[in-house]
Amino acid sequence: MRRDLELISTLIPEGSRVLDLGCGDGTLLAMLRDRGCSGTGVDVNPDDVIAALRAGVDVIELDLDSQLGEFADDSYDFVVLSRTLQTVHRPRAVLAEMGRIAVHSVVSMPNFAHWRNRLRLLRGRMPMSRDLPFDWYDTPNLHHASLPDLEPLFASVRMKIDRRIPLDAEGRPHRLGNVAANLAASSSLYVLHAER
User: Around Cβ 138, how many Cβ atoms within 10 Å?
Assistant: First the structure.
């Protein structure tokens, strides 16, 4: 199990209605169900959709870039987008839709500016790590951002950062916290709320 998913599950209050975008095999929603939450997963990968259904998770196969209009305004308490923002074609539009669907969101994304990624670039190679595990020619990642690049994007869609949790390569909160997070954090997790 990904440790960051365990952390996300602790950030969502019991009994919440949760929409998990890019839910994969439904692991997070299954954990949240055990904590009294209800939820729906969305994924475009048919194998992941089948795995989530087998885990007893309600899941819908939709394209995040074009089909989030299927969800009504304020139909959920939380929307989760874990390690998926960098794979969508229109990140800004997806974030705006999240803010429409729920006041609260949890977003996590790899930090392209992590010191190991920078070192690999200095050696003339494209970064690869636990958070960026794909060869450049085979990656689902369309967008790479540093933390200072990512955070103004939230503001542009009227989402306020309630909490930023820099993560280490294992998906745990980084021991340095927010100190030099753009250099030290392998990825970062954000708790956001949409301005209304």
Answer: 7
pLDDT in tens, 25-47: 999 999 999 999 999 999 999 99
Q: How many structural domains is the chain composed of?
A: 1
How many C-alpha atoms does 187 have within 13 Å on its Cβ side?
Answer: 24
* Angle of the 91-101 helix axis to the 147-156 helix axis, nearest 10: 50
Alpha-carbon distance 123 to 117, whole Å?
Answer: 10
Span 11-25, average pLDDT: 97
Residue 46: closest CA among 62, 70, 66: 62
CB atoms within 10 A of CB 25: 21
Domain of 110?
3-194
Separation of alpha carbons 32 and 76, rounded Å: 14
CA distance linking residue 146 with residue 33, whole number of Å: 33
- Domain at 150, CATH number: 3.40.50.150
pLDDT in tens, 154-190: 999 999 999 999 999 888 999 988 888 988 898 999 9
